[in-house]
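Q: What would this complex look like in 3D?
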Amino acid sequence: MERLKSIYLVLLFGFLYLPMAVLILYSFNASKYGTHWDSFTLGWYRSLATDASLIGAATHSLLVGCLAASMACFIGTLGAVGIYRYRFKGRIVLQGLLYVTLMSPEIVMAVSLLVLFIALHMELGFCTLLLSHTTFCLPFVTVTVLSRLDGFDRHLIEAAADLGAGEWQAMRQIVLPLAMPAIAAGWLLSFTLSLDDVVVSFFVTGPEFEVLPLKIYSMVRLGVKPEVNALAALLFAVSLLVVSGAQYLLQRKPK
Amino acid sequence: MRQGNFFRTSVILLLSVWLALFVLIPNLLVLAASFLGRDESGFINLSPGLGNYLRLFDSVYLRVFAHSLWLALLTTLACLGLGYPFAYFLAQFRTSVRPVLLTLVIIPFWTNSLVRTYAIRSLLAARGLLNNTLIALGLIEEPVRLLYTGSAVLIGMVYILLPFMILPLYNAIEKLDHRLLEAAADLGAGRWRRFWQVTLPLTLPGVIAGSLLVFMPALGLFFIADVLGGSRDLLVGNLLKDQFLDARDWPFGAAASMALTGLLFLFLAAYAYSLERFAVEDRP
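A: Here is my prediction, written as structure tokens for the whole assembly.
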């Protein structure tokens, strides 16, 4: 029975990882059509590095990812502190709205944001992309920070107030240091979310501002290309690094 | 005190205004647009009516919705069938190994889903690893057509969404109080009876949460069908994409989007209801 369980776990992990492993292996394969193993090459990575439009798209993606993650962390952390510390009218509504945003399918959000931007006569591109990405990252940060704050002793803030600390000082010296791992994890996860998003970006960006996932989408639709293997392997490596970092931050016990 | 009030007001307002501006208002706009007509020249004309919703009942679109729901249901059941034993076995591992295994489930969860879909595509391709392996084993002589079939889309969906099922299931199963199982065993319940009458009801919130997390995205992920299924398998996600970006029939697209949202709210309400019922049953 024990052996059966282990076999099942290994099989399912195999299902989750085998396709990626094959992709990474083929990214080093010199054979153009990937039908058989030819010889080891770094050529596909080299041709990625010289593809100017690809580099442009990657730069755009990194820029939007960093900015959206930072904005989401700023608004989300302050919002989480507000929800945690104060009882106010509409608190339940605000929390409800957060969960609706978290649960609603990307495509519905994409459609609604597109309608908003067109109604506001905004040109689709960098700005609309940044606003949209910040919006779908926001609930992730807020919920992560909120769940970390919920584990704390509220008396710490009261003690700070008793000792004469103002709101900003208490925020800077008590709340922020305590919530920092959750904020950092939220930033990393937002960054990956933004870097991975296809559905929302597809709707809200314009032809002048191309991002990496959409670039991959158009490459993939045209057929299998060895360069895509290399690109996929690189993106997988980035996700691996970022997620491990976030996991490490989140699983560290609060001091 | 003034400083405190200012801080309080600004942090609450910041989040509220952002969500109102980019979540609430856009959705209300879509709702409003869904009742309007389409202009030949512009996007929208002001002739309110239920026409767009009635058009959804056209057999073409009904088929799209039915097909999407069916595929999402199959995906959910497949993920549940594969994921439940997986989460169950995972929860039985030593506490020192579990975080590592759990991280292994979380990594694909956060990996670019387009890249993962592409990985499945290259695996299933005519000259992909699967076909080559089958040929090498002598099971088939010619490559079998795996790509651009309904099964390819289903495999892709399960592959992308499986971690969404495993994580909530694992959370529910890990919390299970083993004394209850021991008590059931002491009272003479066999293995299956313990599972049906103790384990499954107690982990039901995880089952429902996981099913929702798989079912809802399964309705919207248009690129999986695009990359693996070709264009024959039109799903609600593809319909929305076409209406908004290609056909430019926004009011109709808005109605389809509202119908999708309505369906999802129905499922969410069912989830809340089942949680509530569950909580009541829980009381001694």
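A: To summarize the key features: Chain B touches chain A through 81 residues (CB under 8 Å). The domain at 55-282 of chain B is CATH 1.10.3720.10 (MetI-like fold).
Q: Very helpful, thank you.
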